[in-house]
Amino acid sequence: MIFRKPSAARTRFSLLAITLALLGGTALSPTLAHAQDAAPGMPSALVPPSLSSAQVVRATLPNGLKVVIVPNRLAPVVTTEINYLVGSAEVPDGFPGTAHALEHMMFRGSKGLDKDQLAAIGTRLGGSYNADTTEDVTQYFYTAQAQDLPVLLKIEALRMNGLTLSEADWEKERGAIEQEVARDLSSPAYRYLEQLQGILFAGTPYEHDALGTRPSFDKTTAADLRDFYQKWYGPNNAVLVIVGDINPVSTLQLVQDTFADIPRKDLPQRHKVTPVAPPAKTLTLSTDYPVGFATLAFPMAGSSSADFATADILSDVLSSQRGALYDLVPQGKALYAGFEYAPKKEAGFGLALAAFPKGADASGPMNAMKAVLEKIRKEGVPAELVEAAKQKEIAQLQFSANSVSGLASIWSNALAFQNLDSPGDLVAAYQAVTPQAVNDLAAKLLDPAHAVSAILTPEASGKAVSGKGFGGAESFATTPDKPVKLPQWAEKALAKLEEPKPTPQPAVSTLSNGIKLIVWPSHVSHTIQLSGQIRQTPELQEPKGKEGVHSLTEALFSYGTTQHDRLAFQKALDDVPAWEDAGGNFSLQVLTPDFEKGVDLLAENELHPAFPEKDFTVVRTQLAQAQAGELVSPGHLFDKAIKAAILPETDPTQRDATPESIMSITRDDVLHYYQSAWRPDLTTIVVTGDISPEKAQAVLEKAFGSWKAEGAAPNVNLPTVPLSKTSRATVPDKSSVQNDVVLAETLGLTAQNPDHFLLQLGNEVLGGGLFSSRLYRDMRVKTGYVYSVSSSFDWGRTRGAYTVNYGADPDKVGKAQSVVMKDLKAMQSAPPTAEELSLAKASLLRSLPLARASLGRIAAQYLYLADLDLPLDNADRGAKAYYKATGAEVQAAFRKWIRPDDLAVIVKGPTPTW
């Protein structure tokens, strides 16, 4: 972010993000439970209609394809998710990445739909599409306008029945997938998880994760992939889930017409996964993180196990902020402490983590964590935390319908990973869990004799380490050099560009104290979500010498209120149950009947934080320790180099909190900052879900109406900036093999200028459209210079910027930059072609409804517009501009506002070749 630097508060919060990233480096099946032990007499009201078998249309076609159709009226959008019940666990010995390679090749064309047509259709759909490979299931998902469902189903049917799988295509794709391996091997988190999986699942098909290895890809042939495809990719080994604004009956008929002629297959015998708990072992790894991590991993049940619900509740209790593990944080023994459960289908593991400052001894947090887990193993956990976890897990299911793609994922996971009849079966599974069952499982699982401990130690980058890249120029889809003739069925559905229609607008009002309230009613579930933000610019509002006071203030909101201490407040949230965060950005999620209770607690936390003296001292020290590591981390130095390259030296965003400035802050400084920066007249609240505008306004007026602004509103608008000039900088990153490259410049306009719509449209042609973009075609498909490339605009109220981002091997950084310059200047010298403009318009216009296919995205969109002081119908205005725009107008906008020769070049990683 070049307009506002990540504050130390965001650094502190990012500790959790880093922790979760550790689990994001491998394919993990979801946290769902098995329902064999359903509690008799379960109240049907606890099962959300969107997750109940009674509320969906389902069938098994004669060829064995299982189909589940779930109506959801949130937006005119549909998601298809087809789950092939095969993954890396079934690959031949010595070829761990076969399933992953085949996933890539599914985007390389099939009989009746070549790769260029598939790419063009994907762009014209304007939606999102992707795939993932796990050990047990490979998933392919599309989200697009509901009217385009026939196109989505046709794509999947053609891929199921006749994949091309040519040797020439595999030769190109091999390079791309090997680059993916190289990228992940540059990640300390991935290297850790790879070793961990090899230890915990030794001797089983889970011993190697689904990514694969370069040596195995080098010896893999298209014939090998075809053999795997022919064995496993059949309708009787697939589950198709369709969710969205559709008619279930006619949709089922459409599925039958599209897939019925595909023959079933005789499936091979599946491999057994029966891991044996390993003996205790210790790993040590160096990382480029700003903080270190002490971790303990334990074998746990898989997601299809009868013990899964109990294991999931145990995980919730261990990660609870009311639990003994998290209590290491307020005690000052860890910067972060928690527990994560990573289940695969047949087995899983649990991971306890404690973060420590860069340069500190890891033995302290490691021993403290071991002591907590050992006490739990021997004495059990509080029964009230078990009951709270059960209540929250069951209540959380009610939110499932609030995202079209999320609901499709929940159904897919239940059917493909959990072997459940429906996700609603989870309610019975959670209800059946007892405190004794949780304690018995803790005593069995948290055994130090089978724990894999690891220390992830931050290490300064110093001199960059160069490594050989793996070449390759393709991933998923190519971009053709000439217009593509679509198949007739796709041409008929997608060729015509429809004039955009206005989007219904939310209810907008202003509370008595100046809070702007935006309400978007939606009754797809009996839940309500609230998102709020206070316009704040710490770089302008923090006193000189007190940099970091904003971060410290933010961090202290989780330490209770003047009415409830930290534990009592967390208990009050659990009792509702409510999911709440307070601070400059705040949020709340509750069931409909509990909205008023939840808002009262949110207001209590937001308006009456305790900022306890004892906790203040601990948190201040932790924040200073974390910031010391953050300031020397490659990621921070990269962000700082970008800002230094295009912003004036005196720009407020160049300010950095330091350990010294943080330690100089007093509790009175925090109180004064809070009183001056938390103001209702700078606050916007968005409420989405099962509520009327009138009800929302009444509840929020009652809870927040007493909050009054004191004195004149502060200036929170960053100053305008001059047009930047070209420069070059390199930031070493010892852990990187490939370079991350940013080309950036400031602009002479903001999003208030209508020309920004023309720039957005042109950028879709240039680099925003990914597979359909010129940069992707010229930098990846034609030359193989880069692994990834994109371009984007960054808008603020007072400034704008343009950036191009790519990843490249060190010897190709300069060559790739030359291509960027050539393509940018080409945008200025001639209009986009008619085909390019048509594709870009289709992509942007058809993608607009997708932004309304999630209540969370709706709220985020309105908060973004409020932050930029843009009208709430800005998307409609953009749609009209895109629809009417000519190529000459796009060319003129790029010629007027973009300055290729002024782009600054900032590189992170090995020393590049120019």
Brief descriptors of the model:
914 residues; alpha+beta; Cytochrome Bc1 Complex, Chain A, domain 1; 4 domains; 18% strand; globular; disordered N terminus
Structure description:
With 914 residues, this protein is of the alpha+beta class. It has 32 helices and 24 strands. It has four domains: 216 residues, Metalloenzyme, LuxS/M16 peptidase-like (Cytochrome Bc1 Complex, Chain A, domain 1); 160 residues, Cytochrome Bc1 Complex, Chain A, domain 1, CATH 3.30.830; 201 residues, Cytochrome Bc1 Complex, Chain A, domain 1; 181 residues, Metalloenzyme, LuxS/M16 peptidase-like (Cytochrome Bc1 Complex, Chain A, domain 1, 2-Layer Sandwich). Helix content is 41%, strand content 18%. The strands form five sheets. A six-stranded mixed sheet has the order 1-2-8-3-7-6, with helices on both faces. A hairpin with a 4-residue loop joins strand 6 and strand 7. The protein is globular. Its EC number is 3.4.24.-. One of its GO terms (molecular function) is metallopeptidase activity.
Please give the domain count: 4
Indicate the radius of gyration in whole angstroms: 27 Å
Which of globular, elongated, flat, extended, rod-shaped describes the shape?
A: globular
Classify the beta-strand content into a percent band.
15-25%
For this structure, the CATH topology of the largest domain is Cytochrome Bc1 Complex, Chain A, domain 1
Sheet with the most strands: spatial strand order:
1-2-8-3-7-6
Provide the residue-averaged pLDDT: 91
- What profile does the largest beta sheet have? 6 strands, mixed
The residue ranges in which pLDDT falls below 50 over 5 or more consecutive positions are 1-44, 463-479
GO molecular function: metal ion binding; metallopeptidase activity
Keywords: Hydrolase, Metalloprotease, Protease, Signal
Signal peptide: 1-35
EC number: 3.4.24.-
